[in-house]
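Quick question: what would this complex look like in 3D?
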Amino acid sequence: MDTISVTRAHGGTQHVVKHRSRETGTDMTFSIFLPPAAEEGAPCPVLWYLSGLTCTHANVTEKGEYRRACAELGLIFVAPDTSPRGEGVPDDPAGAYDFGLGAGFYVDATQAPFDRHYRMATYVTDELPELVASVFPIDLQRQAITGHSMGGHGALTLALRHPGHYRSVSAFAPIVAPGRVPWGQKALGGYLGQDRATWRGHDAVALIEDGARVPEILVDQGAADSFLAEQLRPDLLAEGCRAAGIPLTLRMHEGYDHSYYFISTFMDDHLRWHAERLR
Amino acid sequence: MDTISVTRAHGGTQHVVKHRSRETGTDMTFSIFLPPAAEEGAPCPVLWYLSGLTCTHANVTEKGEYRRACAELGLIFVAPDTSPRGEGVPDDPAGAYDFGLGAGFYVDATQAPFDRHYRMATYVTDELPELVASVFPIDLQRQAITGHSMGGHGALTLALRHPGHYRSVSAFAPIVAPGRVPWGQKALGGYLGQDRATWRGHDAVALIEDGARVPEILVDQGAADSFLAEQLRPDLLAEGCRAAGIPLTLRMHEGYDHSYYFISTFMDDHLRWHAERLR
């Protein structure tokens, strides 16, 4: 592991770290914020934040406004990258923003040429926690997960696929049913192939329909989000949760868009919600 | 005035606006956050935030973490640019970061070729408040000013030069005695010429020595700031304030650097401090 930067902030420390990943076969960069409690050596609960299309660890690290509350709550906050990067990592053939680099969709790809490097699911659920816990005082018994847009899809599907692994799951403006929307159909087709049966294991609404469960879900969504109707479809999650009896708190916010102005506004609520469930 | 963006955030609205400036003779861009109280039409107090070298309005707008507290306190927050920009605006002959574009030092230049466009002092104290008040519900009787580094220099000197104009003044890691440090000597020499007597009117410590007064000053400074000893010198401000009887709260923070991680950590304290004095 290579420390890129360590910066004092809000009484804790914001680290940016690069490491060689076993899963992706590339260098990967992530950020981790240690609250004061962690710096005193106490094992702290961790919130994994999965970012959206085109993002790296840097977007939420700079604009997420999470440090004050994490410091207060004793919460470690980790933001991984959204895909493998570097020489030899295949990208969208047309260089589009919604597939390939910056758009790993948190699955382990099965289709060549993506299957070699695009292993974001195992990277996020197994490799990264293990690595982080080997260096930082993380309590692996108290993990929670959240994310934005494509990262909200990641948070929901990883929590649904790994019962008990995360104590709580929330999302900001998530893609909830990738099998039924253009971003998701392109990504799942490209990474998993055209057999749509395999997609159901990576589609939050389909996972719920097929019996996967989490204790409850918190979702915030901007009503002025330009991706709402075509790509995000929280109505499908609401329907799925209702049918399955999963308590969903879905809050629609008049006038809010898809940006970090929206995320930073509701970040505090998510941190407090997770912290309660991680106690 | 041209609206570049309007985004809902923390219950208020973050605007980015471009306008043609009478003073600089260029287009100028600034950001303004309206708290919910202002959106309901109530005239609100305003805090002017002056940015440091190389910055535009965007740095603090993205990384400053000021919106939550401004929304709560009913404070309008305006971040101007740090210099004129555009075709025909002269820059540092060597393209250095500490003079010219992004480095206006909040003075009205008297030296050709800078005197034509570099009129940041009058822009910030006169033109911008007038313009902003013509469109947004700003209470011009309740203005406060703060800034970072070069912008801290701007906040301190403008407040000292215009008694009563600002009800309160604070700064993050300010340049306090530009006449005695390399950044300031280069800038004041370039904009005002080599007669050092003229510099004293744009040097916070010299202004205080020469009798200028403000009711009190709040300064936060990182002890691990790499510019501390050579460029910032808060010790000189402490000495000047002590001799003049100006109450100075100077807080040194172990381990903090010069970045927005430092600024965002103490932003909340500054907002609350100003809000109390603007009541």
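Answer marked as accepted. The interface with chain B takes residues 7-11, 14, 62-63, 65, 67-68, 222, 224, 253, 255-257, 259-262, 264-265, 268 of chain A (CB under 8 Å).
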